[in-house]
Amino acid sequence: MADVSAPFRIKGATGDWEVVIGLEVHAQVTSNAKLFSGAATAFGAEPNTQVSLIDAAMPGMLPVPNRECIRQAVRTGMAIDAQINRWSRFDRKNYFYADLPQGYQISQLYHPLVGEGAIEIEVEDATKTIGVERIHVEQDAGKLMHDQHPTRSYVDLNRSGVALMEIVSKPDMRSPAEAGAYLTKLRAILRYVGSCDGNMDQGSMRADVNVSVRKPGDAFGTRTETKNVNSIRFVMQAIEHEANRQVEVLEAGGAIRQETRLFNPDTGTTRSMRSKEDAHDYRYFPDPDLLPLELDEAFLEECRASLPELPGAKRARYETLGITPYNANVLTAEVESARWFDALLDAGAKPVAAANWVTSELFGALNRLGRHIGDSPVTPGQAAELLALVADGTLSGSLAKQVFEAMLETGDAPGKIVEERGLKQTSDTGAIEAVIAEVLAKNPNQLEQYRGGKEALFGFFVGQTMKAMAGKANPAVVNEVLKKALAG
Q1: Is 284:110 a contact under the CB 8 Å cutoff?
Q2: Which of 53, 136, 204, 206 could form a disulfide with 108, with the two C-beta atoms 3.0–4.6 Å apart?
Q3: Burial of 309 (0-12, 13-18, 19+ CB in 10 A)
Q4: CB 140, CB 160: distance < 8 Å
């Protein structure tokens, strides 16, 4: 596999342009409480029902860091081989907005919890390493609701104070496809680690998309930042639109303004929101209410020991079991699929047969039913039993499909279905010989043609035999007995 993806170029009137992309991903930390208060973080609660006095910025309330939020951020850093800073500090980012009751956001500008790391992506059978500049921990703001009243906006502070990891990439991506691959890989890592659920449709993972264009080999151009894009597909659309827009502006003799933009998913376009602020506009300074974070070795070792097998390592392990790279990639793409498959192997299923069955039969059935593997009506133990019945000759491939359909409908174990419905495959040569004799007697013309050299009719006789035995005959035995009968 190549180690550099093919270059992505925008064709302009003045020649090729290169797009430069960096992503700032805001990932909600998996925690039952907020970053500095004990208020709940459950999604979908009634407005303003998960707000503590700290979240509402009542006078005299002092923040206390949530240990679990810090732990999850450290584990995330370890999962991307990033530098973990034993000493870090919280800063105040000062700005006024109605959903920010304190008048500032507690974040980490100067001394983040996690330093540089890297994520390896694959695009078009090529690999590329995307640098991660930092991961810092910060609190989320509240939410303004504009559709409740024709002339007023309402404030919901349920999200105020929710812990976020801001994962800042380096400007290493050069195409929408690379950005999509990076987000997909990052989301998978977060879900494997358990530090974020990655539900972009619920806002627990969203991306600020930084885009600039330049002539290949030139210095970086002026960038724009498209805020709060909440799907991987939308991120790719935003990049493509914004890059083409910037090329049009530059080729018309204009200049790109450093600004914040918004993405419209209905039109696939971006629009200007406000001029882009610099760090000095926020008047950052160390938060006087919070002591620096100092991590000891015991805490770091606890974080390190809690990490699961990550997607890359799991995929490599599957391949050593004989599973194809394609199937290994499919099985490890989502943590729920990998866990289900591991449970199937633990139940005794043979790796290659199990991988082929899961990626074809099970995934196909779940897609047809509109269900996710975490909601599968068939358990890993039941699937292992079904595969064992095929392996020991109790079921043929076609009978196994019938049993599987019955399992989806009833939830019953395959052994029970086989017994109740009489679906067991037969290898009784005497019974098979008798049926083959009847098939040959009923088809004398085809028999004469076969013996006259038309060997393609062998499949016809196999089909007639299997049909006469309702698909319950062992195909291998049918082939063996039929060859002898036709030769006679």
Answers
A1: yes
A2: 136
A3: middle
A4: yes
